[in-house]
Design goal:
Structural class: alpha+beta
Strand order of the largest sheet: 1-5-4-3-2
Number of strands: 5
Number of helices: 3
Strand content: 35-45%
Radius of gyration: 15 Å
Order of helices and strands: HEHEEEEH
Shape: globular
Distance between the termini: 45 Å
Largest sheet: 5 strands, mixed
Helix content: 25-40%
Length: 136
């Protein structure tokens, strides 16, 4: 695969998450994809990503991920992003607060045969929880 092909896959993946078309994620994650930094309770493979993003979209129906900086090679894409949304549903056992959040993260993704096969990443979840008033 080429750098441009991987960037196109990443763009489609982001569009699927932002538009809440999570069933499309199977098209972009390999069946045996590995998340080296999974969310709590996240199962392996495409199903894990779909369930994790579904949880986030239930908590933040207007969830939006904005990619801000990208570095890519022929098999890896690294990017920084900002997640925004309004807390309108249950999250980690906490009821909706109605507050909006904006927090940053970074991710490195490895691609093979047109699909994401490995992911390393981190989001400022503590910052998000502080913005919601759920942590000090």
């Amino acid at each position: 695969m080429s750098r441009n092909s991987n960037l196109a896959i990443l763009e489609k993946l982001g569009s699927a998450v932002n538009s809440n078309h999570l069933s499309e994620l199977d098209n972009y994650f390999a069946a045996d994809s590995v998340d080296h930094d999974p969310a709590p309770g996240q199962v392996p493979g495409p199903q894990g990503y779909e369930e994790m993003f579904a949880t986030m979209r239930r908590a933040f129906p207007d969830l939006h991920i904005e990619v801000e900086h990208v570095v890519a090679t022929d098999d890896e894409v690294a990017f920084a992003y900002t997640i925004t949304g309004t807390h309108r549903g249950e999250l980690f056992g906490h009821s909706a607060t109605g507050k909006t959040v904006s927090y940053r993260g970074m991710q490195i993704s490895r691609f093979a045969d047109g699909k994401l096969v490995e992911r390393w990443g981190s989001s400022d979840e503590l910052g998000m929880l502080r913005q919601l008033g759920l942590r000090t």
